[in-house]
Amino acid sequence: MLPGSEGRPRAAKTSTSAETTRTVVVIGATGLIGKALAAKLIERGYRLVVFSRDPARAREAVTGAAKYVEWQPDLLGEWAAHLDDAYAVVNLAGAPFFGGRVSKAQFRRAERERVAATRMLVQAMGKSQVKPEVFVSASAVGAYGMSKQSGHSGHNGHGDDFVTEKTPPGTDDWAQGTAEWERAGLEAEALGVRVVLLRTGVVWGYEGGALVSQLPQFERGFGVIVLPGTEWMPNR
Description:
Number of helices: 5
Helix content: 25-40%
Shape: globular
């Protein structure tokens, strides 16, 4: 459910409610979560604007949007004008980590790009005459740190501990990188924009994500049961 829509009745595609006039900008709409979100927003009657590095590809992957805007995350360009008077901005952009081996250097580069792109979005919001009411900025449960069950020698995270949004981030590389990413998103609060940090775990779906990369291994007989079965895996 989109933040701010709690308690409102579900709107049909032909609804004349206030939702039909609200614009939601989605960055990363071609990803696994983004596609599902885009379809739901259109179904609810929102005016969807998709930001993409490749608008032509986005138009094929996500149908029904009002606009497909070329987005350059490292350059404050013409795309910034489309943030003006948007009800919400949802940033899900980021290269996926599944689909192949990821080196430490690649991980660091992807991390830096996520932070820089988020800061650029906040900078663009600051120049908008009418600021968005809500900024949903993607994050990860990696903010809590690597789990104790991982066996990683550099771990400094949580195991069976009860954690909340107020729990301090872990001190391993993943947690610190995620914390920096979140700080970049929270900079929008200074503009009077409500910020929602979306801490997702491992996302499963038949269309992509962890399941698609792991299922073939099980089909080939390489899958195993992980014992003793007390390991944590946060799923969304």
